[in-house]
Amino acid sequence: QVRLVESGGGLVQPGGSLRLSCAASGSIFSIYVMGWYRQAPGKQRELVATITTGGTTGGTTNYADSVKGRFTISRDSAKHTVYLQMNSLKPEDTAVYYCNAFPGKTGLWGQGTQVTVSS
Description:
Largest sheet: 6 strands, mixed
Number of helices: 0
Number of strands: 10
Strand content: over 45%
Shape: globular
Structural class: mainly beta
Order of helices and strands: EEEEEEEEEE
Distance between the termini: 40 Å
Mean pLDDT: 92
C-alpha cells in the first residue's frame, strides 16, 4: 500500500516561487500517472498537473491552462518523489495542494500542503 506525503507549502508574495514535494512510502511504479491537485476555499478540488511514471527519468506531462508556463511537474523515481515547481505565483494559486494518482484514488489522499500567495 503506497502512502503519499506532501510538503513544501508556505506563504509567498505574488510573483514568488515554491517547490512542492510528494514523497511516496513505496514504489510509485504501480501508479502509471501521478498528479498534483489543489483545492481553494469554497471550491472543488481541481487537477493542476500530471506526469507519467514509466522509466527512471522524464515522463509525459500535462498542465491545467491556468498554470501552464508557470508550473513544472517532475519526478525522481529513485527517491519515489514527485515535485511541483511553481513560479510566478498569483493570489489565485492559493489553495491546499495534494498529490495522488490520476485519476485520484480514494485511499491515497493525504493531508496536503497549504500554499498562500499574498502580499
